[in-house]
Design brief:
Layout: E1 4-7, H1 29-32, H2 35-41, E2 45-47, E3 55-63, E4 66-74, E5 80-89, E6 99-104, H3 113-123, E7 135-139, E8 142-145, E9 150-155, E10 168-169, E11 171-173, E12 183-187, E13 193-197, E14 203-209, H4 220-239, E15 242-243, E16 249-250, H5 253-262, H6 264-268
Antiparallel strand pairs: 1-8, 2-14, 3-4, 3-13, 4-5, 5-6, 7-12, 9-11, 9-14, 10-12, 15-16
């Protein structure tokens, strides 16, 4: 299946391209190389913010309907300096306009206040702030157009479990007809913030068919077949356990069967690389 990719329309060509990534470096070794967990992490594509390597932004939920946006640039020496900030204050009772107060942190700013507001709007959507309370919508560098009958699901980066980690709302959009720019909505508590950098993904997208799914109950014969298959898999898994040089015992049986099912020719030739190779721990 082919997915059409288009850039952030406000900042085309800026930011890393969406890509698959099955590993999460901060996970423990056993979890990081588990083939079924890696397959989950590699579902869909990671999406990055529309930032250059020398840029970074941060947005904090101050509380009481106020959000503090900060735009950074790195100096030639590698230190980060704030160019400007924008304080967003939502109207009381949702009546009125959102106030946007720009403050420059340099003596001779290279842009105007209106230019600073437009830069901030490249990364966050002011109209979505505070819906629900504490919500912040981040824009991605890549958008997606799916084939007829397929949707795009926008959610958090899977298997990123280090704390603190703000929750994110997951949405599903019919991107075969609605050209939706990638947006990821975090929900912050007062005092929490989200930092965006060039190499840091802000969310993950998955492509799913709109085909209706019907659930049916298994027959007794099918349940018995499932039971036999499960018992056979456990026996084979126990029979193929090996020890790594780090003293970790694992079985490559799942990875081997997966390769034989999905790539029979490579399996017969003893090939196959990537998640779940035989020298890696396996669930």
């Amino acid at each position: 299946m082919e997915i059409q990719v288009f850039p952030n329309l406000s900042r085309p060509g800026v930011g890393q391209k969406a890509r698959r990534e099955s590993q999460r470096p901060l996970l423990p070794l056993h979890s990081r190389h588990c083939p079924v967990l890696e397959a989950g992490s590699g579902l869909g594509f990671l999406v990055y913010p529309p930032l250059e390597p020398n840029e970074a932004v941060r947005i904090e939920y101050v509380g009481d309907g106020k959000f503090h946006f900060e735009y950074f640039l790195s100096s030639p020496g590698g230190s980060w300096e704030t160019l400007f900030t924008v304080m967003y204050a939502l109207p009381v009772g949702s009546i009125g306009l959102t106030k946007e107060e720009v403050t420059f942190k340099v003596s001779d700013p290279p842009i105007t206040e209106e230019g600073a507001r437009k830069i901030a709007q490249t990364f966050v959507i002011p109209g979505d702030l505070g819906t629900p309370p504490g919500a912040v919508t981040l824009r991605g560098a890549s958008g997606f157009r799916t084939p007829a009958g397929w949707d795009t699901v926008y959610g958090p980066v899977l298997n990123m479990i280090e704390r603190p980690f703000a929750p994110m709302l997951t949405v599903r959009v019919e991107t075969d007809w609605y050209l939706h720019e990638s947006e990821f909505r975090y929900v912050l508590q007062p005092g929490e913030w989200v930092t965006c950098e060039h190499s840091m993904p802000i969310g993950q997208v998955y492509f799913v068919p709109r085909e209706e799914v019907t659930l049916r109950e298994s027959s007794e014969e099918e349940i018995e077949e499932i039971r036999r298959g499960r018992e056979e898999f456990v026996r084979e898994k126990d029979a193929t356990k090996v020890m790594t040089r780090y003293g970790l015992k694992y079985s490559p049986h799942y990875a081997r069967v997966s390769r034989s099912v999905n790539n029979p020719e490579a399996a017969r030739g003893g090939q196959g690389t990537g998640a779940g190779s035989e020298d890696e721990p396996s669930k």
